[in-house]
């Protein structure tokens, strides 16, 4: 299935290829809990930025491996490069259109990231 995605204002637009039935993570780390990000981690080859590269700004913290990308205009983070899968892309399920028909949300203990990162490391392959 091909999904369209964007930030709130539409300055950043992208598309992703993903199945109809999805499993996404709901992480309890500080940044994910505050932003409400639902993680759809995928290989880079399944993601294509259509417009808005010039409107993306990046925030890093802690190890600096994760590249949190935000829209300069509306502040929404529609996707980013996750620390758990630096070779992939992590898309916010809430930024996709149409919304997938079948979504299973699993909790991910990001507050204890070091002990749990291995459980999602395969998703960018």
What would your notes on this structure say?
By secondary structure, the chain is mainly beta. The chain has one domain (2-112): Metal Binding Protein, Guanine Nucleotide Exchange Factor, Chain A. Helix content is 8%, strand content 43%. The chain is built from 2 helices and 11 strands; from the N terminus they run E-E-E-H-E-E-E-E-E-E-E-E-H. It has helices at residues 30-35, 113-116, and strands at residues 2-6, 13-17, 21-27, 38-43, 47-51, 56-59, 67-71, 79-81, 88-92, 96-97, 102-108. A 7-stranded mixed sheet has the order 6-7-8-9-4-3-11, with no helix packed on it. The protein has a 4-stranded antiparallel sheet with strand order 5-2-1-10, with no helix packed on it. A hairpin with a 7-residue loop joins strand 7 (67-71) and strand 8. The chain is globular. The mean pLDDT is 95.
